[in-house]
Amino acid sequence: MAELAAHTSTTQACALLGWSRATHYRAQIPPAPRQDKPPRSAPPNALTDAEREQVLATLNSARFADKSVAQCWATLLDEGSYLCSMSTMHRLLRTAGQSRERRRQATHPPRAKPELLATAPGQVWSWDITKLRGPQRGVYYDLYVVLDIFSRYVVGWTVAAREDADIAKALIADAVAVHGAPGSVHADRGTSMTSKPVAQLLVDLGVARSHSRPHVSNDNPFSESAFKTLKYAPVFPDRFGCLADARAFCEAFFAYYNHDHRHSGLGLHTPASVHHGTAGEVRAQRAATLAAAYAANPTRFGHRRPTPPPLPTAAWINQPSREALIQNN
C-alpha cells in the first residue's frame, strides 16, 4: 500500500486495491497500551479466611459429606446456626474444586460386546419380537421372527396376541425340529429373550446363548433389518383388522422374503437359495449369461468382462477391527 501510494495518491491506491480509506488510516494509528484493571477489593461483608475454612470443614464433615448444599444449609438453620447463604456455599465449593455431585453415584460395569461369526447356514440364529398395530388404538400383536444370519432365511415365525416366554420357547423348538440346532442363538435383552423357559431350552439343546448390550440395537442388526424390510414394504398395512389378518399377511410376506426377495447382502440371491446351497449354481448361470452378453457386444461393457456379485463368505455380529484380530492372534 505504501509503495503504491508513493506513485499516486492514497485515494487512488485505496480504490485500486479495494481498500477503504477509513480502514487504511485506522491501521496507521498505533494501538493504545493495555491498562490492567486494578484488583477488585473484597467487599466489607465478605467472609474471612477463617470463616471460609469453617464453612468448607462443615460441608466436608462426615455428617454433611453426602448431602446437598440445600440439605446442609436447612439442617444448620434448623439448629440455629447460620454460616452463610447457599450461593456462598456453592461458590466456596466451586473455588475448592468440589462443585460436583456430592452423593455416591451408581456405576454400571461395561457389558461385553457380542461378537458372532457365521460362515455357513445353521451356525448362528438371531431372533426378536416386534409390534404390529391392531384394529384399535392400544391394541397390538407380537410378531416373533427367528432367522439365520448367514443366509437371512427366516427359519420360524409366529404372531401372537401377547409376548410370552412359552410362545418363544415353542417357536424355537419347532425351528430346531425342522432345521436342526444352530451353534448359537442371539437376541436382545427383552423379558422373553432372557426368560427361564427359553434359556433352559437352549441349555438342553446345547446351544450357546448371546445377548445384545442394553440399549444397543446395533448388536442385533439382522433381525432389525428384517423388520425394516417388513414394515417399509409398500403392501404393509397401517393396521391389521384382527389376529388372523396379521398371520395371513406374515405368511405371504415371509414366503416372498425367503424365496423371492433378492438380498443385497447375499450377492442379490434369495435367502432360500443361500440357505439350501443352490446359490453357487445360480451364480454360475448368471456368469454364463453375462459372458454371452459380453461376447455379443463387448463395447457395451467398456471392454471389461462383467462378473455377477460375489457370494457371501461370512456374516458378523460386531466384527472386530483388524487391530483387535492381530492382538488376539
From TrEMBL:
Domain Integrase catalytic: 117-279
Chain ranges passing through the membrane: none
Family annotation (SUPFAM superfamilies): Ribonuclease H-like
Name of the protein in its database record: Transposase
Species classification: Bacteria, Bacillati, Actinomycetota, Actinomycetes, Geodermatophilales
UniProt record, GO biological process: DNA integration
An example Gene Ontology molecular-function term: nucleic acid binding
Signal peptide: none
